[in-house]
Specification:
Layout: H1 10-16, E1 21-25, H2 53-58, H3 60-77, H4 84-94, E2 98-103, H5 109-112, E3 118-120, E4 123-130, E5 136-138, H6 139-149, E6 188-192, H7 201-213, E7 216-220, H8 227-239, E8 243-246, E9 259-261, H9 265-268
């Protein structure tokens, strides 16, 4: 006698019942690509908080520390590749069931996996932007500039930290040379939203417009502790559309969820592959 068919998982059933999913992803989606996340299963910080926008803009010492650590961290971050969670969500879109994917990640791995409709809520780490004239430079080119100006630092190594950072400590960061914009002499910053910095209004408005067209929301790999992402879950709850989440541990929206799956993202989404 043939084996009976395997019943659909609750998540597979949820996805199958909706045609216009608004997907929100976070750091848990990229951990299997070798990019560490920020928080533990309780939603607490695993390490000191990321650099603050005001400190970066106002303090040369903060910029020296940031770019020195980034010089080391980018070497592996820039080589990260999509994992099965990214590929599964790309397949979801290819099947016509994804209204929009909004990611809190800055690694562009959804795009590398072939996902076409993506909003980078917090920007993208593969670009560097001048805060004076707005000129943008590929991060790979800026890496070469940093290396030429700080050749002795290239021999250092450190453990990976989230978003291309590295746990480089006990170094004299005051000796690190930070280049200025070649066009105007302005401060150069990764083209991402730092803590203490606002997400551009047009990005928020575009995401909200897509959410208004969705018939359900799927959260993948986010504790939602940062309000910039959590507000979209609040908006979905206000619209009374179903909300499912895949996350290891607590989320800020646990009391708003229709379904919660506590599994690794790539395992929970394997049915899409």
């Amino acid at each position: 006698m043939a084996n009976p068919p395997v019943a659909n998982s609750p998540l597979q059933d949820f996805v199958g019942r909706h045609e216009r999913l608004f997907v929100l992803t976070g750091a848990g989606c990229s951990t299997n690509s070798g990019i560490p996340d920020y928080r533990d299963s309780h939603g607490n910080w695993k390490r000191t908080q990321p650099v603050n926008f005001q400190a970066f803009m106002n303090e040369e010492s903060t910029r020296q520390r940031y770019w020195a650590r980034s010089l080391i961290g980018w070497r592996r971050f820039g080589q990260a590749r999509p994992n099965d969670a990214h590929h599964a969500l790309a397949r979801l879109e290819a099947g016509g069931r994804c209204e929009m994917l909004l990611t809190q990640n800055v690694d562009r791995l959804h795009q590398s996996a072939g996902h076409r409709q993506v909003i980078d809520l917090h920007g993208r780490l593969d670009l560097v932007r001048c805060m004076g004239c707005g000129a943008k430079t590929p991060r790979s080119e800026f890496q070469d500039t940093l290396g030429r100006m700080n050749a002795e630092w290239l021999a250092l190594d450190a453990a990976d930290a989230p978003d291309g950072d590295a746990d480089l400590e006990h170094a004299n960061f005051s000796l690190f040379n930070v280049p200025a914009c070649e066009a105007c002499g302005g401060i150069l910053k990764p083209d991402v939203v730092f803590f203490g910095e606002n997400v551009p209004r047009d990005i928020v408005a575009t995401a909200q417009d897509h959410l208004s067209q969705a018939d359900a929301m799927l959260i993948v790999g986010s504790s939602l502790m940062v309000y910039s992402g959590f507000r979209f879950v609040q908006a979905a709850a206000n619209r009374k559309i179903p909300i499912a989440a895949v996350n290891l541990g607590r989320t800020r929206a646990d009391d708003l969820l229709t379904l919660k799956v506590e599994e690794r993202c790539e395992a929970a989404l394997a049915f899409l592959l």
